[in-house]
Amino acid sequence: MKFSFKFWVGIILLTTNQPLGWGTMFIFNALSVNKQDALYSFLGIGAYALSWGMLGLGLLMVGPEGIKYSRTMLKKLWGFFAYRFY
Considering the entire predicted model, what is its pTM? Predict the structure, then answer.
């Protein structure tokens, strides 16, 4: 099955929103604790909120069939990491 460019951009948004959201929030909160500056916490919350925007835009771009495809890709990715690092 051939997918459009819009579909692939949506898939990328769907599969990267969680790692980017959680990762940036973790990094900024660690910086906040290290530097003792609350600004970094707010930046982390902003990055996490941006990841929700990525999720919404990705859902709009791919539609129902893309959601199924994205779930399949994420299951394979988590299975790979579980096998590799656990």
Answer: 0.71
Q: In which domain, by residue range, is 67 found? A: 5-85
> What tens-digit pLDDT sequence spans the chain (86 residues)?
688 999 899 989 988 998 899 999 999 999 999 999 999 999 999 999 999 999 999 999 998 888 888 888 888 888 887 777 76
**The tokens of 27 are what?**
């990094």
- With the C-alpha atoms ordered 77, 68, 48, 33, is the resulting torsion angle positive or negative? negative
How many domains does the chain fold into? 1
36 secondary structure, DSSP code: T
Query: 46-60 burial, b if ≥16 CB within 10 A, otherwise e?
Result: ebbeebeebbeebbe
